[in-house]
Amino acid sequence: MPAGRVPVTTEVVGASPMARAVAYERLREQVGEGRQAYVVCPLVEGSPRTEAKAATEEMERLQREELAGLRLGLLHGQLPAREKEAVMAAFRARELDVLVATTVIEVGVDVPHATVMVIEDADRFGLSQLHQLRGRVGRGGGASWCFLVADPTTPEGRARLDAMAASTDGFLLAERDLEIRGAGEVFGERQAGFSDLKLGRIPRDEPIVLEARAVAERILDRDPRLAGHPQLREEVEDLLGDAIEFLFKS
Fold it and tell me: Percentage of the chain surpassing pLDDT 70?
C-alpha cells in the first residue's frame, strides 16, 4: 500500500432498505464533514432480463430518497467524452458530493476527498474488480469505508464478498480469486473452473509446480528434443498433438 494510505474499512451489508441504511447513513455523515462519495452500480440502464441496479435509475431514486438534498452527478461509459470530463471535473472541484457511476471509475480516478464507496449488487462484480473499485477511496490519508451491498445467491458470490471484507492485500485477493474461480485448463482455452491437472491443484500445489518446472527446464536444456526420454516424449506428443513438431523444430 502506498505510503500514507490507511486500509479501507470494508463491510458487507444486505440489500434490504434497513441494511442499506447503514451505508447511506455513513455516506451522509461523511458528506456532512466535507467529504465525498461514490455509489457504483453494475448497469448503466435497467434491463428486464437482469435484476441489478442501474446507475441512471439509481441516481434518480437516491435524489428522492436516501441522498435527497445532496449534490449528485452521473458518470458512465455511454456518456460523450466531453460530458464525462465535465462531470469528473465538477467532482474533483468538490462541486458534487456524490458520484453515481458504473465501473468506468475503476482505474485512473484520484479524488483525495472521497472517503465512502457504496457498491450496489456487489456480488455481480469480480474480486479483482471490487478491489480496484475500493482503491478509489482512502486516497487522502484519512479513514475511509467501502460498503458491499448484496444478498449473494451463490457460494462463489458470498466467498468473493467475504474475501473483500477480510483483506485489503491485492496479492492475497488475487490468490483467493484463483481459488474461488478455479484455475481453468493448463493446456486448453478455458480460463476458469475445474483444472485439467489430474493430481495437482493450483494455487495449493504451487511449490510442486515450481519444482516441476525447474526439473523440466533442466531436462530440456540437456535434451531439447527429448531423444533420450522416449516415454516422456510420447506423453508430450499425446498432450500437444501436431503442435509438438513445431515445438521440437524451434
Answer: 83
The answer to whether the beta carbons of residues 24 and 72 sit under 8 Å apart is no
Measured CA to CA, the distance from residue 182 to residue 129 in angstroms comes to 17
The pTM of the full predicted model, rounded to 2 decimals, is 0.75
Sign of the Cα torsion 64, 66, 70, 73 reads: negative
Choose from 39-43, 91-95, 107-111, 198-202 the range with maximum mean pLDDT.
Answer: 91-95
Residue 52 pLDDT more than 90? no
**Burial category of 156 from C-beta neighbours within 10 Å (exposed 0-12, middle 13-18, buried 19 and up):** middle
Q: Distance between CA 158 and CA 151 in Å, rounded?
A: 8
- What are the chain's domains? 9-181 (3.40.50.300), 185-250 (no CATH)
Span of 72-76, 120-124, 189-193 with lowest mean pLDDT: 189-193
Find out whether 40 and 102 touch, Cβ atoms under 8 Å.
Answer: yes
Q: Is 237 helix (H, G, I), strand (E, B) or coil?
A: helix
Closest CA to 161 of 177, 175, 184: 177
Q: Which of 3-12, 23-32, 137-146 has the lowest mean pLDDT?
A: 3-12
In degrees, to the nearest 5, what angle opens at C-alpha 18 toward C-alphas 106 and 148? 20
